[in-house]
Design brief:
This protein is of the alpha/beta class. About 40% of the residues lie in helices and about 20% in strands. The chain has 2 domains: about 5-235, Aldehyde Dehydrogenase, Chain A, domain 1; about 250-395, Aldehyde Dehydrogenase, Chain A, domain 2. The protein has helices at about 5-10, 25-40, 45-60, 65-75, 85-90, 95-110, 150-160, 175-185, 205-215, 230-235, 260-270, 290-305, 315-320, 345-355, 370-380; strands spanning about 120-125, 130-135, 140-145, 165-170, 200, 220-225, 250-255, 280-285, 310, 325, 340-345, 360-365, 385, 405-410, 415-420, 425-430. Helix 1 (about 5-10) runs antiparallel to helix 8, helix 6 runs parallel beside helix 7 and helix 11 (about 260-270) crosses helix 12.
Length: about 450
């Protein structure tokens, strides 16, 4: 049984043969309904939001056959859309993955509700009580590619933080996302939440994204998740703030005071544990004092993990079998088992290299020298800096947020992994008893 909210977008023609002529009015209607839902959702209590998360988790399991049948259509069409094996794997759902999505809903329900939290308060000399509290942002427009689980994660985090969500997944997952959205939407009204609190853009027409990005009167934040091309398009076209990172060119610096075993363990994990993600290491910088003694063993460990090395001239003198690094390699997010390696003369040179070639995402230093660690942390301007730990820990779940909607390398409003708190703003509430300003 489809709810009115789930039916509305699909039956009005978004993405149907005659829908393109009315795309502007359809997108405006979608956004205006989200804005109205956001006003209601802002006053919803944590009980209703958590009840919806729990009900949606149960519904995922109960309606898994419906979801899997829809997903099979996407998987069948995937080769014709040019998806490689890794992309098809990300697209594919099964009972285990549906169970994991249900688990993520329950985990979000267990997190503290940030709305209404008192950030700070004070009593002014004139007797006014000033209180700053957390409030929702309003409407979040999420644009993402062919990973159906993002539909669940984004909806969960938006609703828990009191925000209405407009979700636009990739065309490769259109059938899966429609099925998942129906499950989510059908539980909203039953739990006392506005029926348009979670809406899906079901058209595959790329123009719909541009139309929605031009509606700042309705949409408060856009979040693109996907390749650099998608993110740059959204950043260029959006009339509202965008939470983003363009790419993840992350570096590990092995200092002259590094523990050799620790350094090897960290670089292998940072590069090879999951190379296709934004917090995987792409560059290894090694202090010249330890390069000759440490690099050969580290290279063997990386080779055993399937990593190909591209090295600068100094590193190739130690690793003659390595391919020569090009200038472009230092600015490339490989998203593969490829690592660019450079020998540096000092910590300062490592920091300068990161400033020139990095993407302000995640960097790590391996050292037993506390002063060196402090210098590195103070001078490297990234969303997360690790000391004797893998870059792979720049992740909301790993850093205690419980869930995240993405990683931001911007400096305004939110930076690093963005969870529930990062999808809130604040407002001041001032209590008086008749005071006027002199």
């Amino acid at each position: 049984m489809m709810s009115e909210a789930a039916t509305a977008v699909e039956t009005k023609g978004l993405g149907s043969d005659g829908g393109k002529a009315d795309l502007d009015s359809l997108c405006r209607g979608l956004a205006s309904r989200a804005k109205a839902a956001a006003r209601e959702l802002a006053t919803a209590g944590p009980g209703a939001k958590d009840a919806w998360l729990a009900a949606a988790a149960e519904a995922l399991a109960a309606r898994s056959n419906e979801i899997l049948a829809a997903n099979a259509l996407d998987v069948e069409a995937a080769p014709g859309m040019g998806l490689n094996a890794a992309a098809v794997d990300r697209l594919t759902l099964n009972a285990k993955r549906i169970g994991e999505m249900a688990k993520s809903l329950r985990e979000v329900a267990a997190l503290p509700d940030p709305i209404g939290e008192v950030v700070r308060s004070s009593r002014r000399p004139n007797g006014l009580d000033a209180v700053q509290v957390r409030v929702p942002l309003g409407v979040v427009f999420m644009i993402y590619e062919s990973r159906p689980n993002v539909t669940i994660d984004a909806a969960a985090i938006c609703i828990k933080s009191g925000n209405a969500a407009i979700l636009r997944g990739g065309k490769e997952a259109i059938h899966s996302n429609r099925a998942l959205h129906r499950v989510l939407a059908d539980e909203l009204a039953r739990c006392g939440l506005p029926e348009h609190a979670v809406q899906l853009v079901t058209t595959t027409d790329r123009e719909a994204v541009g139309r929605l990005l031009a509606l700042p009167e309705f949409i408060d934040l856009a979040i693109p998740r996907g390749g650099e091309g998608l993110i740059r398009r959204v950043a260029a076209e959006a009339k509202m703030p965008v939470m983003k990172h363009y790419n993840g060119i992350c570096s590990v610096y092995v200092d002259e005071a590094a523990d050799p075993e620790v350094a090897t363990r960290i670089i292998v994990n940072a590069k090879a544990q999951r190379p296709g993600v934004c917090n995987a290491a792409e560059t290894l910088l090694v202090h010249r004092e330890v390069a000759e003694s440490w690099l050969p063993g580290a290279a063997e460990a990386l080779k055993a993990a399937g990593v190909a090395i591209r090295a600068d001239e100094k590193a190739r003198a130690i690793l003659p079998d390595a391919a020569p690094a090009t200038d472009a390699d230092w600015d490339t997010e490989f998203l593969d088992k490829i690592l660019a390696v450079k020998v540096v003369d000092s910590l300062d040179e490592a920091v300068a290299h990161i400033a020139r070639h990095g993407s302000s995402h995640t960097e790590a230093i391996v050292t037993r020298d506390l002063a060196a660690a402090r210098r590195f942390v103070a001078r490297v301007d990234s969303s997360a800096v690790m000391v004797n730990a893998s870059t792979r820990f720049n992740d909301g779940g790993q850093l205690g947020l419980g869930a995240e909607i993405g990683i931001s390398t911007d400096k305004y409003h939110a930076r690093g992994p963005c969870g529930l708190v990062e999808l809130t703003s604040t407002k001041w509430i001032v209590y008086g008893d008749g005071q006027v300003r002199e």
